[in-house]
Amino acid sequence: MKILLTGGGSGGHFYPLISVAQQIRKISEEKKLLQPDIFYVAEDPYDADLLFKNDITYKKLSSGKRRGYFSILNFFDFFKTGFAVIKSFFLIFLIFPDVIFSNGGYGAFPILFVSRIFRIPVVLHVSDTVPGKVNQWASKFAKKISIAFPETSEYLEKEAEKIAFTGNPVRRGLDIILDQGAHEFLKLDKSVPTIMVIGGSQGAQMINDIVVDALPKIVEKYQIIHQTGKNNFEEVSGRANIVLQENKNKDRYKPFKYLDLLAMRMSAGASDLVISRAGAGSIAEVSVWGIPSIIIPITNSSGDHQRRNAFSYARAGAGVVMEEKNLTPNLLVSEIDRIMKDEAKRKEMSMSAKKFARLDAAEKIARGILSIGLGHEK
After folding, report:
1. C-beta separation of 79 from 99 below 8 A
2. How distant is the alpha carbon of residue 307 from its chain centre?
């Protein structure tokens, strides 16, 4: 069997694909099936080491983007996408997968377009509350569609019989937080409450700026684990050093370019509160940890999906939403204090987060893909 994975190039798209691939391998081994050949098609490998470890073959495919605003780049990307469709035709002809699994994004369009020509079964995963344009289009011919938020079904009413509410897959092992030795590993003080700040795999400039401005007040009562993003680290850590230069609690601030799997699990194990963006992947990870959270959606996300993700999570009682237009350093500190002072509220949020999480999401999707793939082989 051959399985082709494709989707957008961010960590929020990449890691769920890998999680599903890992479950495909695990289920194949349990059922004593031949291990399938798995391919990942995208503009870049994102994490070549992780692909290698999971025996996934990478195939490069550069595709254009469609921007929701006027840009001369839209003109050039139209031809770039056309070329990608032609390249996809030959790529799929040579691989000829039994099933294609996509979680959307314009990078997936050429592969999905050509899949219709070859009549290859497609399984879609919609990670956000609002399906992107590629997922909305592909839903019409997809064999199965998994969704992460129950509200998503409202946007895909005509495809209701294909839909399964699975939740979002998270990275394998990330659901098991490590509290033993976490404080020592991260050089944290066990007697001081810990706040974890994550802005997605690339960081979040707006959150970084607010957090740094609020640092003098935050470190009076709390210590902070801050994933700044690789490109932002020098600027953020430099500003933080200036802001906290004479502060007796400056060692309570712990900035990191990027938290790998071990560091992320340790950070979750040590944290009492999480401040996060509202990407579907970020919310899925925060929910499996069962940690109270402040969710800050991007104001101008495509289809307003981050804002909708955030409020869906808040309606479940698992977090509180702070919108960018209302966000100031003083307001952020006030909200942190409000949550941290209310132990009953934190327990309630923690329980709601665990109820929201779907730990078997990757397994359910993997079983569906294998079932369709085996049927296509016959």
Report:
1. no
2. 15
Number of compact structural domains in the chain: 2
Domain contains 364: yes
Q: Residues 200-259: pLDDT tens digits?
A: 655 578 899 999 999 999 999 999 999 998 888 999 999 999 999 999 999 999 999 989
Name the residue among 278, 122, 271 with its Cα closest to residue 182: 271
Residue 10 exposed, middle or buried by CB count within 10 Å (0-12, 13-18, 19+): middle
Looking at the fold, whether 161 and 189 belong to one and the same domain comes out as no
CA 160 vs CA 20, 58, 59, 147, 153: distances in Å? 22, 33, 33, 11, 7
369 is written with which tokens? 């893909």
Same domain, 235 and 155: no
Q: What is the pTM of this model?
A: 0.88
- Strand bridging mode 163-165 / 144-147: parallel
| Token duo for residue 24 | 């495909």
Contacts 24+ apart (CB under 8 A), 253-256: 253/215, 253/219, 253/223, 253/224, 253/226, 254/186, 254/187, 254/188, 254/223, 254/224, 254/225, 254/226, 255/226, 255/228, 256/225, 256/226, 256/227, 256/228
Give tens-digit pLDDT for 173-198. 888 899 999 999 999 999 999 999 99
pLDDT, tens digit, for every residue of 67-83? 455 566 555 666 678 88
